[in-house]
Predict the structure of Methionyl-tRNA formyltransferase, mitochondrial.
Amino acid sequence: MWTYGKTGAFVKILRRFQFGCVHSMWRRGADGRQRRLCGLVSSAGPPWRLLFFGSDQFAVESLRLLTSSRNSSERTVKTLEVVTLSGDVPVMRFAQQHHLPVHQWPPDIVDGQFDVGVVVSFGCLIPKSLIRKFPHGILNVHPSLLPRWRGPAPIFHTILHGDTTTGVTIIQIRPHKFDVGPILNQELHHIPENCTADELGDALATKGANLLMNTLMSLRERLALQQEQSLTGATFAPKINTSISWIRWEEQTCDQIARLYRAIGSQIHLRTTWMGRTIKLLDFAGKCHISLSDEKWKPVPGTVTYQKESDTLAVCCKDGWVGFKAVLLRKRLTASDFYNGYLHQTVKKKMPYQTAEELFVSGEGVTVAHQIRENSVL
């Protein structure tokens, strides 16, 4: 049996080495620089010496909470330094305003200099050699219920695909792949009706920051109880680019166009073509209810008409009509400006068939002429 005397003292020292010493030990490397010995400097628990990796506005909310934690009574964070990408990114601005030490990517740090890393919306894969420098690993705040929507644009795809629930997940990152590490913490979030990607991003940034703090406060227990991600239900959320902004009137429903606008409309304008020119559609007005005076007339997808009462351009899509209050054609035009300047003369002709002047055409210009021939009443 163990006795407390000298043996007990040895156990105390052993535990101290196991969980980390308060004081740092150093050795001098071949290059003459002093380096810390890794196993002797890791904190047993909070407050942590933390290195934060981030770039955009979503990441700032977590960095803000970590920064304020240094002066709080809970003292979750002891020291805080930042790694960010070059350029005038939100995380860089925040770090400079709050006098946080900043490292350029990739950071030149030594083993055991920090206890734990935190990655929030950073965009660069962390190599195995860097992960190993953190005794407690590197945590990632991800705005989805992993394994759903792995990848760089989970919020956009959550809105685009009509999900009614999402959440935030704290994982421990692994090398070589994004968003595949074990889950340490997770919280559900119900998506309000007609929520935009910007609104959802703001809500999840706040929720993610609070969940991160909760995880750091009980990190050792969370690491012990970590769960591998499910092998089923994984989906990928690739980057959003301008190619997704082209509306395909003959394929997309009113709800799909509405979700597309709520997902990307604040960053990328929805687009169509008219008379061979690109038109950007602004100020989405939702689904329109159009009553046709001529019941024999069957409008094809892409048909555009002006609604004077609501000052709206209504466009026919797969299952109905959607409205826009303005367009961008060389310059911004209100719906009435576009009607008076471009559509009015076409409407005055009162042709018994549709002409190109009355149609918004999908990006590839697919089969629209054929649809006109098939559906027009001569």
Observations:
- The CA atoms of residues 185 and 311 lie 49 Å apart.
- The longest helix spans residues 197-217.
